Amino acid sequence: MTADRTQKATLGAAIAAIALAAAGGGYYLGTSGGDAKTAADGRKILYYYDPMVPQEHYDSPDAKSSMGMAVEPKYADEGGTSAPGVKIPADAMQNLGARTAIARIGMLESSLDVTGAIDFNQRDVAIVQARAGGFVQRTYGRAPSDIVRAGAPIADLLVPEWGGAQAEYLALRRSGNAGLANAARERLKLLGMPAGTIASVARTGRRQDVVTISTPVGGVIQTLDVRPGMTLSAGQTLAQVNGLGTVWLNAAIPETRAGEVKLGQSAVAELASFPGERFSGKVIAVLPTAEAASRTLTVRVELRNRGGRLKPGMFATVHLGDVGKPALLVPSEAVIRTGKRTLVMLAENGGRYQPAEVQLGREGGGQTEILAGLSEGEKVITSGQFLIDSEASLSGIKARPLNAAPAPNPAAANNPAKPTDYGTIGSIEAIENGAVTLSHQPVPALGWPAMTMSFKLANPTMTRGYKKGDRVSFRFEQRKGGSTLTSIAHSGAAK
After folding, report:
1. Kind of pairing, strands 421-432 and 435-440?
2. Would you state the pLDDT for residue 243?
3. Residue spans of beta strands (DSSP E) within 121-245
4. Which of 59, 105, 280, 333 is packed most tightly, with the most Cβ within 10 A?
5. What dihedral do alpha carbons 228, 229, 234, 236 form, nearest 10°?
6. pLDDT of residue 301
7. Does the residue 480 lie in any domain?
8. Mean pLDDT of 46-50
């Protein structure tokens, strides 16, 4: 027999063994015509067979199959209905190349890396308007997209309506009638005259019919609709100024991953314009509508813009994901998606295998989070599970439902293990509400890359004397409520 034929025969034997084992005692059709025999160990023998041709049954262990192969005993306790699942011989599993893995509690590596674009902070916008009607006497050479400081002049406006009202106010002040003078002063306010201009008129005793319109905030001029000689009405918009102290980063995430993003969680952005530099921010909004074409949702991250380095329109890579929460994990290759439900193939005692329905959570780093249907310590098949699942389906074996997973070990629940202590070095990004946000180096023991994340404080006073930018060494524990800082100390100079 050639190598190719030998390989085919071996694979055929494995598949035939699975089929035979799943069928159990039902294959015995009474062809022997005699009573069941008993082996030396007391086990009942139903018949003898060749795994390569399981449909052939023999009475004698000395018989040869139609393929000229020696026969094996088929025991009555194989493939019975007392235990769930399909029973498969160990040699057949070996021929299939089946591998197993144990469901364990671990930290899921964050893999939610998406792209986005820098945009203006639309909440930091100032509208510059004329408070009274008049004529534009002068402009200051501004243009759209110019960057201006707070209080920068936009235009000088002549307001004829103010002239008579100011003359009346000054005359009443000179008359000594305080009541009427105050009434005239209030009228100036109602006409839109700024408080500073009114105070200047009272101090100098001279009319000021020209007012300088200035921007209340610093930033970039988005629109500018004023020219010398223009006639303006009260409330007319002269300019729109957008602040640059903070910017928005709008990132598109797949709608299937939207549940991983929470308001307030930290985010880290990297831009090609600043290689090797990371910009920390937080998620401030998940927009309520999805893009129909790309099936994505927009996540809005707010970033500090020190020195105005981040320009609207720049592209950035955004690192998102909650990695601070322990989860029950299995290798992603163990998951079977049928289209109607999601399964894993359990490896149970006695060479039995049973499908189990599971509910999936997050996925990353080759691991998948199991939310329901599986317990820690259970063994799952990671290779060859599709063939085993097919055989289980043909045998009419039902999958274990979600709510039938074994309960956790009560002893372990009553005596929880002490949280493991981890340590690394990082820089303080923020201190607020009993928590500290740190941009830290990798934590190899947890499989964490370098990232920025928030830690709860074991003691609210432990960050006294620390400030944003301090470089620190710290230790933390993975507790039920999340990552908790247990110690902190200064480490070198501030970044």
Report:
1. antiparallel
2. 92
3. 125-129, 134-139, 147-148, 153-158, 210-214, 219-224, 231-232, 237-242
4. 280
5. -50
6. 93
7. yes
8. 78
